[in-house]
Amino acid sequence: MTYTAQNFEHLLGTAGFSDQLLKNHFTLYQGYVTNTNKLFDTLMTMSKEGKAATPEFAELKRRFGWEFNGMRLHELYFSNMCKGGKNLDEKSLFSKKVQEQFGSYEQWEAAFKAVGAMRGIGWVVLVYDPVGKKLFNLWINEHDVGLLAGTVPLLIMDVFEHAFMLDYGLKRADYVAAFFNALDWSVVERRLGKE
To answer: Which residues of the chain have a pLDDT value below 70?
Structure first.
């Protein structure tokens, strides 16, 4: 199977995100798709040739998680955004779970944004654990480190510099505010509905 880059050009013109920033970000994402396909093909070839026990195979296998998760996290990130944003349905299952666990939407949002304000590069991901029935705001330092196995990613925010530096410089909080204004909460609600 070959992965194909999704087209997110419908996000061009989103308030708070310059077209140049978005185009740069789309190009970066397309690189993850390309590299995921290259690594998959190379690993399959090496496996068929009996080279799965080599150090080269091991390093490429480790790299595969970086490229694949870089591809998938970007897809989830772009997919939970839209021009103008879409409001959260306060009666949705998602809204009820947030209020139940965090006390209020505002307390959850403050906690999520606090993770986004941490020093460093990475991702902030709200996940749902269907086994424990709990929500977690995760910091994913690298694409392949920090995602909790078995959890469902609900809301993804990219906090690598490429996601905001062109438009916001070092003002990450301003980027986070623009991101929240562009959220499509119906997508987040649907992701929880798949639990």
So the answer is: 194-195
Same domain, 131 and 63: no
Distance of alpha carbon 173 from the chain centroid? 18
Same domain, yes or no: 116 and 150:
yes
Distance CA 163, CA 145 (A): 19
Q: Name the domain count of the chain.
A: 2
Q: How far is CA 154 from CA 3, 16, 18, 51, 138, in A?
A: 22, 22, 25, 38, 11
Are 105 and 50 within one domain?
no
Q: Read off the pLDDT of residues 101-145 as tens digits, 9 standing for 90 and up.
A: 999 999 999 999 999 999 999 999 999 999 999 999 999 988 878
Q: Are residues 58 and 116 in the same domain?
A: no
- How buried is residue 92: exposed, middle or buried, by Cβ count under 10 Å (0-12/13-18/19+)? middle
Q: Residue 27: CA atoms inside 13 Å, Cβ hemisphere, count?
A: 7
Residues 185, 133 share a domain: yes
Amino acid found at 91: K
Statement to judge: residues 105 and 158 lie in one domain: yes
Q: How far apart are CA 144 and CA 20, in angstroms?
A: 27
pTM tops 0.90, yes or no: yes
Measure the CA–CA gap between 105 and 101, rounded to whole angstroms: 10
Contact 131/150 with Cβ under 8 angstroms? Answer: yes
